[in-house]
TrEMBL record:
This is Reticulon-like protein. PANTHER family: RETICULON, RETICULON-LIKE PROTEIN. It is found in: Endoplasmic reticulum membrane. Keywords: Endoplasmic reticulum, Membrane, Transmembrane, Transmembrane helix. GO terms for biological process: response to bacterium. The keyword Magnesium does not apply.
Length: 248
């Protein structure tokens, strides 16, 4: 009996040791897998040299939450309102000035009837809050708009001086594409398409970020290769503008 008890204890101890070794091996495999995944993610170059998370790229806060569908109800509401406006003005051919006048007529008529009917039913008239634009908000918007316009003008000046041929060609190509779209679509439809893209493309990109970045890295390498061939054969032979501004 004693020998049988000792052999049973030895078997249990060996089983525990084998379980511990297998669990440690599985932990090592998990750690190795997680480290390999993290190293693989670190090797992937983000699009446009992005280093921050996509939420911070969009400025954070409520606008980023809307574009990335962090608040699904608010994003769906905004997209639904934009779709309703596009259908109202584009498909039903309703005019903005007509809509504003009809809305004001309806609102003023309802408030006027409510205010006069409250005297007969012994109820207080509706409280209409006073709406005014704060001075700080108007100043901040004007300063931000001024900064963006000045930056755009400075970029256009740098391009016009001929210092960056690659940027010049990209801007020309972008303006050419916008001109084609403007000839095919009106401003409201173009604005609606851009609005829908802002509510769909960032969300899809964030969901499949690693795959898209990996594909973008390969495409960027191929574009650089083709641009190098074009630069060596054609662009390098084009005379460039002055490198420095003339001082008066």
């Amino acid at each position: 009996m004693a020998e049988h008890g000792e052999t049973l204890i030895e078997k249990i101890a060996e089983k525990i040791r084998s379980d511990d070794s297998s669990s440690s091996d599985s932990d090592d495999e998990k750690n190795h897998k997680s480290s390999s995944d993290s190293s693989l993610k670190s090797k992937i170059h983000r699009l446009f040299g992005r280093e921050k998370p996509l939420h911070q790229v969009f400025g954070g806060g409520k606008p980023a939450d809307l574009f990335l569908w962090r608040d699904k109800k608010a994003s769906a509401l905004v997209l639904g309102v934009a779709t309703a406006i596009w259908v109202l003005f584009e498909l039903m051919e309703y005019h903005l000035l007509t809509l504003v006048c009809h809305s004001l007529i309806l609102s003023l008529a309802l408030l006027f009837l409510w205010a006069n009917a409250s005297t007969f039913i012994n109820k207080s008239p509706p409280h209409i809050p006073q709406v005014s634009i704060p001075e700080d908000l108007a100043v901040n918007v004007a300063l931000s708009l001024r900064f963006e316009i000045n930056r755009a003008l400075a970029s256009l000046r740098e391009i016009a001086l001929g210092r960056d041929l690659k940027k010049f060609l990209s801007v020309i190509a972008g303006l050419w594409v916008v001109s084609i779209l403007g000839g095919c679509l009106n401003f409201l439809t173009l604005f609606y398409i851009v609005f829908v893209l802002l509510h769909t493309v960032p969300f899809i990109y964030e969901k499949y970020e690693d795959k898209i970045d990996s594909f973008g890295e390969k495409a960027s390498a191929e574009i650089k290769k083709q641009y190098a061939i074009l630069d060596s054969k054609v662009l390098s032979k084009i005379p460039k503008g002055p490198l420095k501004d003339k001082k008066h």
